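WARN  no MSA supplied for this record, continuing single-sequence
INFO  ligand: adenosine-5'-diphosphate
INFO  echoing inputs
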Amino acid sequence: MFGTVEAGGTKFVCGIGNEDGRILDQITVPTTVPEETLDAVFAYFRNKPIQSLGVGCFGPLDLDPRSPSYGSITGTPKIAWRYCNILAELRGRFPVPVALDTDVNAAVLAEARWGAGRGLHTCLYLTVGTGIGGGALVEGRILHGLMHPEMGHVIVRKQAGDLFPGVCPTHGDCLEGLASGPAIERRWGRRGADLPPDHRAWELEADYLAQGLVNYVYALSPQRIILGGGVMRQAQLFPLIRRRVLELLGGYIDRPEILADMDHYIAPPALGSLSGLCGGLVLAMKAVKP
Ligand code: ADP
Ligand code: ZN
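INFO  complex generated
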């Protein structure tokens, strides 16, 4: 049995599961301040027979093992969590190995093992929710590099006449600034969930997301792209995004996976809302059997 935590900005989901990715029990606790939320996490796992614990966490995170702040949440707008060393806190309280990675890196690991990326060595998981973030599995390994990718903050070309300044506190109109859930809400004055499926918001949303995806296709050469997060519950976005990606690629990537199988190339998560939680299981398993 392994322990998993999906640590998000609004809630922490804790669970236990097995080697097959089956979640056997889970609880949700609200994200308040570290002392309180982590106490609830400790309480949940206290008597659970887990071999190891894997945590997929919101970021940005310091994931450089040589850094003095390794395992910390760094520049988050959630002030109470800034510089919280979540890895050190958990390692200090549990006698088992603890592994930490970003929420989206966890999600791509789970999707590659049990879900929409099964059998693939290079794939991408992008969440479009409160923020936009991507996790990349590249030739079987999670890409960390200098820290970890920050795919939501890529620059996209604004549509002519789009005067919306964007909501990213750092960049304004980066992809996240233009296309995250809060960007949709600010731009249209209504939450995405309340906009009708034929609203022109979705055509614009699909264009910006497609531009991001095309950049990732060129830079990382993923065998598949999995799109999750609250905004992607708008199922009509999938065909709009696929069409726009094909247009923007203009036939340049001459591969049947893209030209003939777009419905699989850009896909929803097969694990649904469990990608992150199952990802924690993969991290936990890797912590004992790398
Ligand atoms: P988080 O990113 O905080 O982990 P979610 O992935 O659920 O959580 O994303 C939340 C964002 O997604 C909010 O901005 C919300 O307005 C938006 N959202 C949630 N459900 C929908 C929906 N059905 N249609 C469009 N947008 C949605
Ligand atoms: Zn940004």
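The chain has a mean pLDDT of 97.
INFO  checksum written, moving to next record
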